[in-house]
Amino acid sequence: MLLPRQDKFFDLFDKQAENIAKAAELYHQLVEKADFSPEKVRRMHEMEHYGDELMHSTINTLNETFITPFDREDILALANRLDDIMDNIYLLTKRFHLYKISQPTQFSKRLSSVIEQTTKALQHTLAALRNKKHMKETQDYCVEINRLENEGDVIKDEAISFLFDNEKDPIMVLKQKELYEIAETTTDCCEHVANLVESILVKNN
């Protein structure tokens, strides 16, 4: 018999959000310290792998559950979009290591800070799924995530403009441009999750 396991989904989403926030904090530290050693990349890979395990656990729980707290399609979409954020943070870490960027730019540092702030706000947003009484607070966090995503867009545009004006090495232009774009995509992914949470809350209010 397929029994409802409502809390299990919320527990898994909370764990995904916590793992993402910790990864973003670690990434910010690595950028600030310019430390993308193999050891640090392995540590981030472990976090990315743990995120994959949580996503698969969500899918398995979905397959084993008849009654879900909200639409099955939304549960699956939320798990996948959270996984996209973790994948991007790991990709950034790996690219810094592979591209041998010895000194991250001030733009990369600012973007890493925005990513960290956004994932922390996202953590609060997901926690509110468990309790609809916090809907107003959740909407405030979603607004903050949108603001941070816009800030990330502005920083990325400034970074690429500065890069084209000042960097003479075409290979370095390609490397840095990709790093800026992946960082901005990471904040985009956070905004997508926030929008999905808002949609879920409206549909189930």
Write a concise synopsis of the structure shown.
The protein is mainly alpha-helical. It is built from six helices and no strands. It is 83% helix and 0% strand.
How large is the share of residues in beta strands?
A: under 5%
The CATH topology: Methane Monooxygenase Hydroxylase, Chain G, domain 1
Instruction: Compute the average pLDDT.
Output: 92
Q: What is the H-and-E element order?
A: HHHHHH
Oligomer: single chain
Helix content: over 70%
Q: CATH superfamily, please?
A: Phosphate transport system protein phou homolog 2, domain 2
Shape by Cα distribution: globular
Strand count: 0
In terms of topology, how is this protein built?
Blueprint (H helix, E strand, L loop, with lengths): L5 H28 L4 H27 L7 H27 L7 H22 L7 H32 L3 H34 L2
List keywords for this structure.
Methane Monooxygenase Hydroxylase, Chain G, domain 1; 6 helices; 205 residues; single chain; mainly alpha
Folded structure, characterized:
Helix 3 (72-98) packs antiparallel against helix 6 and helix 4 runs antiparallel to helix 5. Helix content is 83%, strand content 0%. It has helices at residues 6-33, 38-64, 72-98, 106-127, 135-166, 170-203. The longest helix is centred in the C-terminal third of the chain and has 34 residues, at 170-203. The model has no long low-confidence stretch (mean pLDDT 92). By secondary structure, the chain is an all-alpha fold. The protein is globular. It has a single domain (6-203), classed as Methane Monooxygenase Hydroxylase, Chain G, domain 1 (Up-down Bundle), CATH 1.20.58.220.
